[in-house]
Amino acid sequence: MHLKNNLQTPYYICEEELLEKNLEILKYVQVQSGAKIILALKGFAMWSTFPLVSSYLQGCTASGLHEARLAREQFNKEVHTYSPAFKEDEIKEIASLSDHIVFNSINQLLRYKNIVKEVNPDIEISLRINPEVSSSPKDIYNPCGIYSRLGVTLKNFDTDILEHLDGLNFHALCEQNVDALEEVLLSFEKNFSLYFKNLKYINFGGGHHITKKDYDVEKLIRIIKAFKQKYNVEVYLEPGEAVGWETGYLVSSVLDVLENGMNIAILDTSAEAHMPDTLAMPYRADVRGSGLAGEKKYTYRLGGNTCLAGDIMGDYSFDMPLKLGDKIIFEDQIHYTFVKNTTFNGIKLPSLALLKKDSTIQLIKEFGYKDYKNRLS
């Protein structure tokens, strides 16, 4: 279980061996399909692993100035930067850091195209398209939902801007298999392939669950190869969760056990602050060695250590009663977790650690009071 260490809970552990396993799959897709895969920092930004990740992937996609800086400073391969709206006081620095810039609207494109080219004559310009087709499992993660603010629809597309474009982007998936991509591509090609002729690349966005066990990798490769051959363009993919998927866990400790109609265990972590997607998606995180409520002999509601009434991880059962100091391990907590962490209630941020391939554990970062204080004024 790799828990024989002196780390104080809570902490995340990323397993280097599992991370490299995912990267090998992504490398295989690149080699076989000819696509370029870049890391979406919004999903995985553990930059201590970037020496490894950068040896497999072509660069990063950033969502604004700070991510672009991180990509340039710590990854230093291709940097693609997209934002729903760029700020005037940041656009020049973003252009200086980026190899590609992706505008969300024609308004933003027309406003900033000359500025970014003046700062970086070699920068390539793309526009995000809304293909208006998505099977995203939840509205909160559906970029193509009704009244979406993300991307340009066919109705709002203006062919006059084609002379300024090197590429087009779309993003319509959320942790989905290749069939969902196939559905989106049908609409995207039907509405926009007329405009591919002079483009250098098409970016298929993120949400491709490539490293999940049931993902049809071979079908993805066939789709990419056919698309590249048909339109003579480069193809980019920019997954986030596919890089960090099932590469590690969050370890917490039981602080108290009480009873109020059922047994309740208070942990030194938080769903609200440390595992936000378990509430936003929502989804039930797997707990190592547990079962569903009632499945094993002892059932507990696991709760976080904040004052939010709904800071609840869920109801889990165990073979033995929980006691103070017991470790509770939440599986698959490396992607879209610490990138979203907050210090709500002043709760301590979990430390970041790396389980090396030689079985040693490296403490990467420990957080404390200053991290909480410095976020405030």
List keywords for this structure.
377 residues, alpha/beta, TIM Barrel, Lyase, Ornithine Decarboxylase, Chain A, domain 1, nine-stranded mixed sheet, 11 helices, 18 strands
Largest sheet: 9 strands, mixed
Strand content: 15-25%
End-to-end Cα distance, whole Å, is: 41 Å
Average pLDDT, all residues: 96
Please indicate the count of domains.
2
CATH superfamily of the largest domain: Alanine racemase
What CATH architecture of the largest domain do you see? Alpha-Beta Barrel
What's the CATH class label of the largest domain? Alpha Beta
Q: Evaluate the radius of gyration.
A: 22 Å
The string of secondary-structure elements, in order, is EHEEHEHEHEHEEHEHEHEEHHEEEEEEH
Uncertain runs are none
Share of residues in helices: 25-40%
